[in-house]
C-alpha cells in the first residue's frame, strides 16, 4: 500500500516549528491548498499546540482558529481535525472534517468517543502518557514498544465499546510524546510490531526534537532527519505520515517505494 501523506496545518501562535505562520485563516487555507497540490491526501488542521509544556487553549479560541480553515479546506482534501475537545471536533465535523485526530486517544474529553461514534468519522488514537504539560517530566517504560502496543490495544477496545467502528480507527505511537530519544528510536525501529494491532499506523516525526537531539539541528533544519525517520517508518509498515514538508516527503516516499517494490507482508 502506498502511504498517505497527512499535511500539517497549524493555526496556532505557538506550535513548535511553525507557530504564528498561518494564524490568519486565509494564510492557513492557502498553505493547506499548497500541501494538497504537493501530494497531501489529508490535511490535519490544529488550533492548539501540543508541544511539551504548551499552555492549553479555551474552546472558543480554538474554534475561532480552526473552523474557517476547515470550511476553506474541506472541499479540497480530506480534512482531519487535531483536537482533544469534543465541541471543537463537532464544529469541525459540521464544517466538513472527516477524521478526528485526538492526541489523548479519546481520554481528554468524556464526550469525544460518543461524538465520533455518532458521526461515524475516522479517529486517530495516539499514545501519550499524561498530558502535554507533564509528559516529558520523567518518561519511563519497561519495554516501550510493548507498553505502547498494550495502551493502543486498550484504547481500540474502549473506542469500539463506545460504538466506534473498528475500521474507522487508525493508531499512532506518538513520537515525541512522553518519550526519551531512546524510546522514540526504539519505537521507530520496531514499528512493525504495532502492525499486529491490525489497524493502519500513523507516524509523525516531522521536525521533532528527537532529531535535534541526534545532531544538534535547530527546528528549521530537520528535514533530512524527518525524511530518514519517515522512510524507515514506511519500510516498517507506516500507512500515514504526518508531515510539514509534503513535497519533499512525497518524493522521498516515491523513491523509497520504487526501491522497496512491494512491501513485505502486505
Ligand atoms: N504530533 C503533533 C501534533 N499532533 N497528532 C498525531 N496523530 N501524531 C503526532 O505525532 C502529532 C499529532 C506535534 O506536532 P505539530 O503539530 O507540528 O506541533 P504543535 O503540537 O506544537 O502544534
Describe it.
This protein has one domain (4-259): Dihydropteroate synthase-like (TIM Barrel, Alpha-Beta Barrel), CATH 3.20.20. The chain is α/β, with parallel strands linked by helices. Helix 1 links the parallel strand 1 and strand 2. The model has no long low-confidence stretch (mean pLDDT 94). Strands 6-5-4-3-2-1-8-7 form an eight-stranded parallel β-sheet. The chain contains nine helices and eight strands. The protein has helices at residues 25-38, 59-74, 86-94, 112-119, 144-161, 181-189, 209-215, 223-235, 246-260, and strands at residues 4-10, 42-46, 78-82, 99-102, 122-126, 169-172, 202-203, 240-243. Bound molecules: 6-hydroxymethylpterin-diphosphate. 6-hydroxymethylpterin-diphosphate binds next to strand 1 and strand 5.
Radius of gyration: 17 Å
> Which architecture does the CATH hierarchy give at level 2?
Alpha-Beta Barrel
- Could you please say which CATH topology applies here? TIM Barrel
Number of strands: 8
Largest sheet: 8 strands, parallel
CATH superfamily: Dihydropteroate synthase-like
Structural class: alpha/beta
Note the run of SSEs as H and E. Answer: EHEHEHEHEHEHEHHEH
The bound ligands are: 6-hydroxymethylpterin-diphosphate
CATH class: Alpha Beta
Helix share bin: 40-55%
Low-pLDDT regions: none
Determine the number of helices (DSSP H or I, runs of at least 4 residues).
Answer: 9
Number of domains: 1
Mean residue pLDDT = 94
Q: In one word, what is the shape?
A: globular
**What portion of the residues fall into strands of 2 or more residues?**
5-15%
